[in-house]
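Escalation from tier 1.

The customer reports that the assembly of two entities below gives different structure tokens on two consecutive runs. Tier 1 could not reproduce it. I'm attaching the input and our single run for tier 2 to review.
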Amino acid sequence: MADVTPQKMVRTNGPADPIPGAGAGAFEAARERSVDVRAVRVTVAPTTRIEGDPAITVEPPPDAASVLPGDPLPAGDDPIVDGTAVHARLERFGPQRARLSLGDALGVTRAPIVLGELRVDRARGTTVREVVVHGWRIDVEIESERRALLRERARRGAGAQSHGGPLEVHAIIPGRVVAISVKPGDTIDAGGQLLVVEAMKMQNELRAPREGTIERVGVAVGQTIEVGDLLVVIT
Amino acid sequence: MSGPSDQPFRRVLVANRGEIAVRIIRACHEMGMEAVAVYSDVDRTAAHVRAADSAVRLGPPPPAESYLRIDAIIEAAVSSGAEAVHPGYGFLSEREAFARAVEEAGLAWVGPPPAAIAALGDKLAARRAAKAAGVPCVPGTLEPAPVDRPDELDSILLAAREVGFPLLVKAAAGGGGRGMRRVVSPDELAGALLAGSREAASAFGDGSVYVEREIIPARHVEVQLLGDAEGTVVALGERDCSTQRRHQKLIEEAPAPGLTESDRRRLHAMAERLGAAAGLRNAATCEFLYDGDGPFWFLEVNTRLQVEHPVTELVAGVDIVQEQFRIAAGRPLSARVRAAAERAARPTSHAIELRISAEDPARVFAPSPGLITRWRMPSGPGIRVDTAVEAGDRVPAEYDPLIAKLIVHAEDREGALARLRRALDETEVGGIQTTLPFHRAMLEEPGFIDASGLSTTWVDGHWDGPAARAPWVRVALLAAGLVALEDGTTAAGPGAGEVPGRSRATGSAWRDAGRVAAIDRWPT
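Tier 1 run:
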């Protein structure tokens, strides 16, 4: 992937980073002030698998009636994104379409943003929906910012999660197992071939994400697998 | 054009699925013929089954138990009273044994004769035929590699060194990159031959592989041929299909940009010469590699209808599938086809096709089958969409990920590009990730817009899916956040922020929510 020029690949009517939101530092500062009770945390859902789980916090424009003495942000019409007022406007076209305008631009995309059905995940305490923008299909999780902060505090209290335990390799595409290159007890290097999955007539070699010993192989040759199925456990 | 006098057959069996089966059934109906579909269990209610006049079950979803079963398909054709079989592309379309079985059952085969399939469909045999016809071939071997004979590894290594590294291991029976492996150094060769052979055996039932020089950078240029029983073979024009990934075409267009009239005449004549020498009839495509100013290197012949045939149909003004039926019924090439062939070196319009596939361009185009929850295709001037899916359909993991072809036609290439951008703004697909964001990005890519960057390796060298996606992830998060604020929907579900009996007096959901919050924050 040499000579990668991603900026060139981005459609010109959407800037490289279309949201002039604040960086992480400003966001930390924003947490210090009292967060609006209506604020929502929007995170890329695990089903879309984007490294680093990108997330933003969105608050409504501070209303004159709700600005308290000492609040750093004045009342206005712009929503607050990661602690900074952003000139963003949302135009709705029924329950499934919307158009987003940023700054003076007429729309981030001429094509509408497509909103999938809202599903409530009671176990996680979030709502999940699909958003399709510029052809990209992204599942997002929406929860109250206060709840998200509580959850993070609880996690910090529980201490850092341990690493180096068994690594479960799950199927990332559905298909059929056509070859298995390892058996329990084998040692494997990072990048070593574990098995071959055929999906849509293409053979996909699945490789070990790290070195280790094969503890278990959960599938057999010829077996049909679905996304998320446990394939191999590496210790 | 149509009507009983033009009806080549009374009833036709379409031995395929998906968009191509629907496209062939459309041609049948336009010519006054009845169409019989075949289906696997997962396709029982699929669009091609609904479009056909009747349908016959073949078996369970795996291709080997359904769409690849020669016996079951012949039985379906005979028992349903079909007079001809159209194989579409993929599956059994280039299987000599299938074509022979169709003819032996007393039915008409809508495609090149079995002998031509054997001579041209096997890539190794085609390379030998091209050499004999004086058409320059990509350097490589002409016989199958001894994959299962470790003692003969030395001989293939020697041949490979002569071809030069990096080279490609290719399946003799291959197509669409299946069975293909790129080999950078000699020590990788044995493994690549074995892996390629295994994939080829699984996909085609034939594990023969050979090696060929990798010519890069190069454009993929191919010529559409039609031939009749009298031995006349004509070229309907060429296509450029350079935008590929892992030898899977993503964008195709006609004519190939930047060729002169004399380039075209030379290219078309080579293809016609090879087709005539091999006894070609019906429709086939002759593929070449072209590095800009050197020769056109012969690559292979596909003895079937191509996925990208519509771009040629639009520019040439010929319905290729209808012509296939006329030719299969023994008629000579029509005056319309001959006139189109004479004009082919001087094209007067431009067509581009985008392959909309269930693949994720941010995850190296990995298959992304699943349930389509939303499906809106573009319309209006110059738009053609060939598809077989709609909202509520599940894209099965068993078959090719191609779910739709978006084809535009305009006076010139610039007009076609503008039309494509407009069409993509009207296109909405939800539930599965598709190749649409890749297509959107390509339509803004300077090297594609002016055609200077057309190359079969461009996508692998330049496309960074996650980077292209990143800014749009932020847009999606912000849009979802603003919608949630407006609707008052968070973890507790819709309506959680509402106060019973409250009226929306301010006309602004944000302000209403603000009031509620203010009430919540003041001690009462």
